[in-house]
Amino acid sequence: MSEQKNGQSRRDFLLRTIAIAPVMAVGTAGIGALESRSVLAADNTSSLDAPARDYQPTWFTAEEFAFITAAVAQLIPKDERGPGALEAGVPEYIDRQMSTPYATGSNWYMQGPFTPDVDKDFGYQLPLVPRQIYRLGIAEANQQSQKLYGKVFAELTPAQHIEFLTALEAGKVEFQQLPSKTFFSFLLQNTREGFFSDPIHGGNQGLVGWKLINFPGARADFMDWVERGERYPLPPVSIRGERS
Q: Rounded distance, CA 214 to CA 22, Å?
């Protein structure tokens, strides 16, 4: 969450650390494309300020959705190379995920014992499913924001947003019902997913995430390009046939 990590912007850090299928699929051609700021800027300039479609949350409350909206805008901000998470519709993606089996932990093993102190070795160790993590985490984040700044998170300045999210990431904000670091990790992971998912799930609207990494999307066959070390020449296509 720092403004720069090893001399790179937050967007650079995100792109260099994502571990999702699209990046693996495009191989060196995709990673090479990320280095070309001029090409990406030219591809995305026309849609840089394009807003996400209007959306009313179906699971989050208005206050919770305001938190999500403000947070993702800082986690993947728009810049000269293209739209960020907000413009890509990531808040819609996260809200829609709260109505899936993932959000209720229906396919998770949720029996004890729970030992949070060993999560680095054995994975997630809390008796909370994503719905609970978001509901409790947002409430506690807003409470701590009120204490620190006199306002809920959504009402803070961009600089205060970054400062507070950085503290969450480092686990320096004291939550009572779950570690603030755990809440931040879920928020960041779901933001990444929403930015690079197929638009059928609500995020990556306009295919902006795929355009940024030069991922062909749901095209039937592009494997002959993977080892060529060249930028893939065709725009991405979504499952529904949408083209950027």
A: 9
**Exposure b/e, 140-176, CB count within 10 A at least 16 = b:** bbbebbeeeeeebbbebeeeebbebbbbbbeeebebe
Which long-range CB contacts under 8 A does 166-175 form with residues at least 24 apart?
A: 166/1, 166/2, 168/1, 168/141, 169/1, 173/141, 173/144, 174/144, 175/136, 175/137, 175/140, 175/141, 175/144
77-112, pLDDT tens digit by residue? 998 888 999 999 999 999 999 999 999 988 877 676
Q: What is this structure's pTM?
A: 0.77
Please count the other Cβ atoms lying within 10 Å of the Cβ belonging to residue 118: 10
Provide the 3-class DSSP secondary structure of residue 60.
Answer: coil
